[in-house]
Amino acid sequence: MTQGQAIDRTPPDPRDAAVLDAVIARHATMRGALLPLLHAVQEELGHVPDAAVPAIAEALNLSRAEVHGVITFYHDYRRAPAGRHVVRICRAESCQSRGGAAIEAAAAERLGVAMGATRDDGQVTLEPVYCLGLCAIGPNAMVDGRPVARVDGPALERIAIEVAA
Amino acid sequence: MTRVFVSADMASVALGADALADALAARGCEVVRTGSRGLFAIEPLVEVESDGGRIGYGPVGPGDVPAILDGSHPNRLGDVAALPFFARQQRFTFARCGITDPLSLSDYAAHDGWKGLAAARAAAPAEVVRTVRESGLRGRGGAGFPTGIKWQTVLDAKADEKFVVCNADEGDSGTFADRMLMEGDPYCLIEGMAIAGHAVGAGHGYIYIRSEYPFAIRVMREAILRSSHLIAPFVLEVREGAGAYVCGEETALLDSIEGKRGQVRAKPPLPAHVGLFGKPTVINNVLSLAAVPFILSEGPQAYAAVGFGRSRGTMPIQLAGNIRNGGLFEVGFGITLGELVNEIGGGTESGRPVRAVQVGGPLGAYFPPAMFDLPFDYEAFTAAGGLIGHAGITVFDDTVDMAHMARFAMEFCAVESCGKCTPCRIGSTRGVETIDRIIAARDTGPAGAAAVGGGLGKALHSRNPGRAATDGPANIAVLRDLCETMKFGSLCALGGFTPYPVLSALDHFPEDFGDGAHALPAAAE
């Protein structure tokens, strides 16, 4: 589970607030709207800013704690922006059986960022993923949403060049 | 114009199918994007339409296009369906996958689509439920509960509103059948859900798909749009998960759709009585629902005619990990593990000996080749201390360290625990620490284990250095005890089944846990 950090209480900037209002309006009549709404906010803003929590809570008639609880429970929601590129590497058993652990270590080394972190220059985020459902052709990665199978040294080099841009 | 077929399945795309399709289109071919046939060793695969049927070539890349089109390419496979990997299968659920354009309504109708729904709607709901019960279909998500009985319970429940929910949160490593079906034949799942809706009196259905499957989400949403008039008044909606493995547990999944943290509910009440939004709910796996159109159109006897013991019908088995012929193999229950891994799978891809296979995902047991005569059957696997789960088989060669795999099982449980019950939330973390001590003792002896630094060192020395044992045998006893607690004290299968991989690794591969492991044979149980 994600460790909670202090909540940032600055109000959303006006541009974010307009996006937020539109997203909230789109989900107003949906049952169980919180997850789809958070996905939409993240899609538009790149993350779910703490400053968005009060408005979301009010719109869905929830407490801020409930919304915060959901955001921090699910691995997908980000409270801070990701790097310009996101590289996700599968850590699950099937990829491990095909040398995934070595690729995971090599990726961290080559990209210069620890697993689960964003590089200081904001260029790339490296994240673990537990299974992409490509289990006979691992080790697998997802580079900015594009699946890549059979990741080996040369493939990793191509990924590194791609995310350097 | 030459018509060619190239899969747009996520696995095919990950192997380069898009570049192949583009190159074919650039040469003037009419490219039809299909689902995957399900044998990844021959992908990227293209099938070229000819008077004598489709001629397959694979694996091929964009540079091979000229040789494919003039028929001279050495990777010519001929009729793909005639390859041994496919000829041995019984494709009831995956009959269309890899052959049709997934989103083409005319393709679906031309390949027996909507026949099951028509048959269901011509019958009374109770009649449909009886048909499903007679087929012997059991929940394909892992638990193996009879689908017809679940439907009967919801049919009998009195409520102003009922729901059908499809569990497409296929998080187990080594499984991808749900994903392939949704990407390759989405109308089959839609038809199955519409039949379920008719059978139990539900007007609204949800498909909960994990966010790691963006292709499946896209295809299902489009398929629902295109087929809404055919399933009306039944209404379907896709809900996207958010990266929580535990949401594959049915009650956590329901909470997640409701917009809450995906925490497990205590049962009873069963979802069939108090489910989504508090209403009676049928919640089934993708493969259970996708098996239903066949059962309705061909009759329950046709389905029940294949199988083994109380496991009737076919199972789409997924051959994964370090295996030469990895992919999807749908066959009647009863085939042995050895046939699957060695004959059909062709052994490891690395060419080294098979050392272990994990069946049923991260919560499934590890089996050694000595147990390869085990038939694929719910009861046989339970008796052997494992589970077939979602029928994923992950193969490992002899370079695997089983103590590390046992540690990973605990680590995964710690990462993914919903936190509601203590055995799972705390036990998994204690399990990681205990296995770390076992590995340290194995690698360096007890003195080395005592010198372990970081958080573990602190835990060892915070009060009494003698409090935590550092030798292998004592820690293995602790680990077995911990597994007992998790197995019987956890609220759901995440904490309850994490002991399966751990204990099976201990029981079948004691040599990986140091000297002490032999001394304590099967203390648990």
Strand order of the largest sheet of chain B: 2-1-3-4-5
Q: Regarding CATH, which class of the largest domain in chain B? A: Alpha Beta
CATH topology assignment of the largest domain in chain B: Rossmann fold
Tell me the greatest interface.
A-B, 43 and 60 residues
Helices of chain B, by number, come to 23
- How do the SSEs of chain A run, as a string of H and E? HHHHEHHEEEEH
| Low-pLDDT segments of chain A | none
Shape of chain A: elongated
> What spatial form of chain B do the alpha-carbon principal axes imply?
globular
Computed Rg of chain A: 18 Å
- Considering DSSP H and I runs of 4 or more, what fraction of the residues of chain A is helical? 40-55%
Query: Helix count of chain A?
Result: 7
Structural commentary:
Chain A is α+β, with helices and mostly antiparallel strands and about 160 residues long. Helices cover about 40% and strands about 10% of the residues of chain A. Chain A is built from seven helices and five strands. In chain A, helix 6 packs parallel to helix 7 (about 155-165). The longest helix of chain A is centred in the first third of the chain and has 13 residues, at about 15-25. Chain B is of the alpha/beta class and about 525 residues long. Chain B is about 40% helix and about 15% strand. Chain B has 23 helices and 16 strands. Chain B has helices at about 10-15, 15-25, 65-70, 85, 105-110, 115-120, 125-135, 145-155, 175-185, 185-200, 215-230, 250-255, 285-300, 300-305, 335-345, 380-385, 400-415, 420-445, 445-450, 455-460, 470-490, 495, 500-510, and strands spanning about 5, 30-35, 45-50, 55, 75-80, 165-170, 205-210, 235-240, 280-285, 305-310, 310, 315-320, 325-330, 355-360, 365, 390-395. Chain B has a five-stranded mixed sheet, covered by helices on one side. In chain B, a hairpin with a 2-residue loop joins strand 10 and strand 11 (about 310). The interface between A and B is large, with 43 and 60 residues.
